[in-house]
Amino acid sequence: ETSEASEPIVVATEDLENDLQWNISMRARIDTAMEAGELHCVYQPKVNVLTGRMYGVEALVRWDDAERGPISPMTFIPQCEKAGRMEDLTRYVLQTACNAGRYFHANGQLITMSVNVSSILFADLKIARIVQDTLLASSFDARHLMLEVTETARISDFETAIEVLTQIRSLGVRISIDDFGMGSANFETFVRLPFDELKIDRLFVNRMVEDPKARAIVASLVRLGKDASISVVAEGVENEQELEVLRKLGGTNVQGYALSRPLSLGQAVRFGQMENEL
Ligand code: C2E
Ligand code: CA
Ligand code: CA
Ligand code: CA
């Protein structure tokens, strides 16, 4: 005997309960995954387009769920965020990546290790502490760590984000703006946030061969990088034509399947040892 008026309330309660249950089980699953070693990182080379030299790698997290098989970070990163587990996940990836970074260095490759950090974590000074603690625990040199800030369009409190980024940079860690050009806050991001590298989103990179407008955007970002002394990376470079355009623009750093897919740690170290012919 549900009255019309009570119906929406019942629905809302059910939703809330489902949400709560989902969050609890998701949280438990992520915790279990970390404990059971179902999470690991792969490393995608970042290469200088003119010399072919691998100067850095980006750590990308992978989740091989015991029951469901591999789950894409595109799926589980948002779930992790919703379940309030981004901090733990980031701590895990930072630790794994810094240890991997030491392994590269021990093998004579002085690469920069890049780690993705979701912009929601820059709403709180805690991330600066996590970064500092991880560097200490792994004794990895801060100057070889770079944080890629993803989804900058979602930063709502710029004052706090600036404070957090400034504190992290004072450790010697560099900051990269990921997926530049996507979302709405990017030029505001460019002028307001302190950073050292920008990554041109692959949307523009993949269109630039046939689309003069996309090419003009890439060219202007390369130019902007030079003028502002900011390192520029074109991401998602998939073929020789794209590499050729980027070489003609005077050279940038590049990342993408044309250079290498994300690799295991051992494979990435071997990739760095090869003389890469581009
Ligand atoms: P992203 O940071 O933009 O990373 C680049 C994504 O593009 C990676 O996908 C990579 O495997 C893929 N990729 C690289 N080269 C190419 C290419 O030439 N063509 C195409 N089509 N794709 C390419 P992945 O590993 O599935 O990661 C997806 C996104 O998930 C990342 O995008 C990043 O935003 C997020 N992510 C991954 N690992 C982490 C992490 O540890 N923490 C956080 N917060 N986010 C992460
Ligand atoms: Ca990234
Ligand atoms: Ca990106
Ligand atoms: Ca992306």
Automatic annotation (TrEMBL):
Protein name: EAL domain-containing protein
Molecular-function GO term, any one: cyclic-guanylate-specific phosphodiesterase activity
Domain of life: Bacteria
Domain annotation EAL: ranges: 23-276
Keywords from the UniProt entry: Membrane, Transmembrane, Transmembrane helix
